[in-house]
Design a protein that fits this description.
aminoacyl-trna synthetase; 11 strands; Alanine--tRNA ligase; 9-stranded mixed sheet; metal-binding; nucleotide-binding; 469 residues; 15 helices; binds magnesium ion; globular; alpha/beta; binds adenosine-5'-triphosphate
């Protein structure tokens, strides 16, 4: 079996041999984009290169980039534990051409790596192209020899990438792997494509146009390539398993979680173990890159992820803080590739233990309130916003933790009621403050608090400048 660490190496070496400079992963907190919460794609550190603001490190580059998708335009938090292929933290393997090679070479490279170097069977692969991109369609025919019905033309924005309202954009081609008909899901473009049977492994973006503010598109003088492949997804394929959580890295993390909780990951508790393993990675990597739990901004996203994992640890019956005890296992698995984990280990363990100790003080009481409020409810019902807000305000339950806790029973949460309760509380606090006769400074403080709002991250998500591939 090829280990995940070996696959990462093999990818970088393959492109290294094809004259790509190996660039280390950038930190998860973007240095070049204040509108973006976390780096969520391999191209993010190169944004300014693609727009022409910075000169490229070389004509070609390759990287394995740490990514977090838990907030903003790309939020996979709710998928974790429930799909076979989504994580909050994952590694994106990429190769980049900055005005150097284009479509033909990009498709050629991808096909050669997958089918020759790594030996995947072409029978298992399907490619998609943007419906108007005849050039990509013809290149796939020529290079891969795939039959025409496995080069699927897609009309949606899934296959057209853009950096923002203006700037570089272009069609993309995604490569899917068929995990077999014993798994639910249809091919790309079909109504049930969201299943786990046909899994998207690699996205090739052909940056070809420059989107103008007036809606027109100009051809870029030197088109570029940006690709992204999920390491955990290709590891599942190469290790012959049908779920990312069954790959070597996750197996080791889940085994440690089983050992420490004494609860098997087979059967009913699979999702909890997966959530714990996934959130252990995202929280540890975020802290290694300098994010600490807080009540606002990035720190609050971190806290939300942590607390959700801690609720699952509680669900597995662990009576003591669990998360920090899983860190050594993570460092064993990933510390060599990411030395910042080793450097941060002591801090990560300490913060996790402190947070879990703290959260456990109110967790039981909050869960009891939640049980009382929903005891009589059946599938399809909705928890009122007031109670969800009380859980947040008094018991420290982030909104999505409440949602996650009720999900298995098919019960929803009234989001607008929650938001309304939050607004009312802020207004009450503001009014109370004005009464003190210091309205001016109070105003400023509350405005700042509001802008950095504990649960309001729409400022980040509504910007279209988000890096994505
Ligand atoms: P999906 O449609 O499966 O959600 P995507 O189209 O959002 O994936 P891209 O933005 O194209 O993903 O990212 C490039 C690659 O990164 C994907 O082809 C996939 O292999 C991987 N990837 C994306 N999101 C995740 C995730 N949450 N966890 C693990 N891998 C991911
Ligand atoms: Mg996605
Ligand atoms: Mg997709
Ligand atoms: Mg994609």
């Amino acid at each position: 079996m090829t280990s995940t660490n070996d696959i990462r190496r093999s990818f970088l070496d393959f492109f290294g041999k094809a004259d790509h400079v190996q660039v280390p992963s950038a930190p998860l907190v973007p240095y070049n984009d204040p509108t973006l919460m976390f780096v969520n794609a391999g191209m993010v550190p190169f944004k300014n290169v693609f727009t022409g603001l910075e000169t490229p490190p070389a004509p070609r580059a390759t990287s394995s980039q740490k990514c977090v998708r838990a907030g903003g335009k790309h939020n996979d938090l709710d998928n974790v534990g429930y799909t076979a292929r989504h994580h909050t933290f994952f590694e994106m393997l990429g190769n980049f051409s900055f005005g150097d090679y284009f479509k033909e070479q990009a498709i050629e490279n991808a096909w050669t790596l997958l089918t020759r170097e790594w030996g995947l069977s072409p029978d298992k692969l399907t490619a998609t192209v943007y419906h108007t991109d005849d050039q990509a369609f013809d290149l796939w025919r020529k290079i891969s020899g795939l039959p025409e019905d496995r080069i699927v033309r897609i009309t949606t924005s899934d296959n057209f990438w853009s950096m923002g309202e203006t700037g570089p954009c272009g069609p993309c081609s995604e490569i899917f792997y068929d995990h077999g008909d014993h798994i639910f899901g249809g091919p790309p473009g079909s109504p049930d494509e969201d299943g786990d049977r046909f899994v998207e492994i690699w996205n090739l973006v052909f940056m070809q146009f420059d989107q103008q503010a007036d809606g027109s598109r100009r051809e870029l003088p030197s088109p570029s390539i940006d690709t992204g492949m999920g390491l955990e997804r290709i590891a599942a394929v190469m290790q012959g398993v049908h779920n990312n959580y069954d790959t070597d890295t996750f197996k080791a993390l889940i085994a440690a979680s089983e050992r420490l909780t004494g609860v098997s990951a087979q059967g009913d508790h699979a999702a909890s173990h997966r959530v714990i393993a996934d959130h252990l990675r995202s929280t540890s990597f975020l802290m290694a890159d300098g994010v600490l739990p807080s009540n606002e901004g990035r720190g609050y996203v971190l806290r939300r992820i942590m607390r959700r994992a801690m609720r699952h640890a509680h669900l597995l019956g662990s009576s003591e803080p669990l998360m920090h005890r899983l860190v050594p296992g993570l460092v064993t698995e990933m510390g060599q590739a990411y030395p910042e984990l080793v450097r941060g280990q002591a801090l990560i363990e300490e913060v996790l233990e402190r947070e879990e100790t703290q959260f456990r003080k109110t967790l039981d009481k909050g869960l009891k309130l939640l049980d009382e409020a929903t005891g009589e409810m059946s599938e399809g019902a909705e928890l009122d916003g007031e109670t969800a807000f009380k859980l947040y305000d008094t018991f420290g339950f982030p909104y999505d933790l409440t949602e996650d806790a009720l999900r298995a029973r098919g019960i929803g949460v009234d989001r607008s009621g929650f938001d309304a309760a939050m607004t009312r509380q802020k207004e009450a606090a503001r009014a109370a403050w004005k009464g003190s006769g210091e309205a001016a400074s109070g105003e400023v403080w509350f405005d700042i608090a509001e802008r950095a709002g504990a649960t309001e991250f729409t400022g980040y998500s509504s910007t279209s400048g988000e890096g994505t591939i």
